[in-house]
Amino acid sequence: MEHLALTRRSFHMLACGAGSLCALPPAWAAPGAVVWRLATGYPAENFHTVNLVAMAREVEQATQGQLRVEVHPKNTLFAMNAIRAAVQDGKAEAGEAIMSSLVAEVPLAGADSVPFITHGYADAMRLWRIQRPLIEREFTQRGLRVLYAVAWPPQGLYANRPLAGMGDVRGLRMRAYNATTARIATLMGAVPVDVPAAELDKALADGRIDCMLTSAVTGVESRVWQSMRFFYDIDAWFPKNLVFANGKAWDALAAPSRDALQTACAAAERRGWADSAAAAARSMDELRRNGVKTEPVSYLFNRDLRRLGEHFSLDWVRQVGVGANDIFIPYFDGR
Ligand code: PCA
Q1: CATH code assigned at 116
Q2: What residue's CA is closest to ligand 1, atom 3?
Q3: Which CDD domains match (predicted)?
């Protein structure tokens, strides 16, 4: 009979969907189990996604299968920029988004992409601790629940030619992945070209961009050396990915499942920040191995970049209004 031919693997494919990453090896779902779908736009091998899958595994183990979180990577469930709305509307129970993509709805989410105010992971973490209660308040009002956030490695500048100063960036096609990065490109005198992470490899192969600001990790994942062999390690900012859930889906969980999810998310946050630093170091080596020259910027270029950072900060404060003080005052006071 046909159903007897259903192997554990094919059952797993049916249960989890072909594009998803289930946390555990195939197993029959526990009776009454709740399945959450978690959407992300980043690839399965990215350290953020690997961390999500580890979180899902912990939840599944702790709840003995009562709550299963399926991780759908690389836009397979929803396109990156649609994930927040999809989770808010209950089309997916949970999702991950880079915070600077949420600024239209939650302006305070943009604080981590203000360039040159964080000088390492410790600063980025301190900024997150200040941002978190404010973001939580905003998310709660929208029926969303904040689970955790993890920083990307510092954003550096890649180019297909050596850049001696800001003048050399003028007119270049600079990759951007949301309104925030497009604004930075414009301030640098470049022409923003919208390319989501999932399409970066192809855009580089097609020669559609001359320069970009992103991490060493994304440089490696997109094989940046196909067209860009210069990397300026300017530590411009530490964008964070935010993982969140639909508020109703959260409320509907049985208390033990909710506790298990909360515990696993706290662990994922701790682990993710450490993984980010480790992935950054590995990726820098990988860039060099593939012929990317990592160089410091000249004194004048650095000065101009920092001025641009100040300009962007002022812009950001103007745009966000007094709420920006709730972040910047404690952040700069805590230095
Ligand atoms: N990589 C992602 C976001 C930030 C990063 O380092 C990207 O470039 O799309």
Answers
A1: 3.40.190.170
A2: 214
A3: PBP2_TRAP_BpDctp6_7 (cd13602)
Q: How far is CA 114 from CA 37, 119, 179, 183, in A?
A: 31, 12, 13, 11
Q: Establish whether residue 272 lines the binding site of ligand 1, counting it when its CB lies within 6 angstroms of any ligand atom.
A: no
Terminal-residue alpha carbon distance, the chain: 69
Based on the fold, state whether residues 194 and 301 are members of the same structural domain: yes
Q: Any idea which residue has 């590995």 for tokens?
A: 282
> CA distances (Å), 307 to each of 112, 115, 159, 286, 321, in order?
18, 10, 21, 31, 21
Nearest to 86 by CA among 99, 77, 98: 77
pLDDT in tens, 241-263: 999 999 999 999 999 999 999 99
Q: Residue 40 to residues 8, 76, 92, 237: CA-CA distances in angstroms?
A: 26, 8, 11, 21
Q: State whether 108 and 251 are in the same domain.
A: yes
Q: Do 36 and 265 contact (CB within 8 A), yes or no?
A: no
Question: For the whole model, what pTM was predicted?
Answer: 0.91
